[in-house]
Sequence to fold (203 residues):
Amino acid sequence: MENIKIVNPKKWYGLKYPDSDLIGLVMKFAKPNKNDIAIDIGCGTGRHIKFLNEIGYNAFGIDADKNMIEACKNNGVEAYLSTLENFKTNKKIKLAIGWGFSMVVPKSMNISKTIPKNIPADYIILDWRTKNNSFNHFENNIILSENEVIINKEGHVLNGLSYTSFNEEECILEGYEIIASQKVTKELNREINEWYQVVYKKL
Fold:
């Protein structure tokens, strides 16, 4: 499989508050017991690693952007430079999250197979962008396929990034059952943002 390098927008630097939707799903479906391990796939600056540690997980992250790994170190959380397809661990992982991850990797990565194969956690929580997002339809976007575009809007936080959206039936993971799923639509700065937010349990 082709190695994929992600370079995140500089506006994503800094330790923001953890996403409230993700907090709710973790606390309802995947609270930690003592010594449970969690991983954040595409961890960025480590905001969700910090949250997971605070509620009792022994958490770490991976990201393909070396600047984000440096930011994690500066923010006091553990993270490693790695793409998903190259990541290997002997640790038994209870929870894996990938929040905002699926939208910035191409469909050729095949998340539905790659995450269960490389990170077979007991529980996995992911969000998947739908096609009902304003920036999916900017008129100057470069169309790569039916559900993949390169964002082309000067000054936009995602300008220049490959962006992937998903249909509901694509939000599956091999070897896992869906125990919770919700479609969330939000408006921010007159842009529509919409996700399928899904919790998986290993069969």
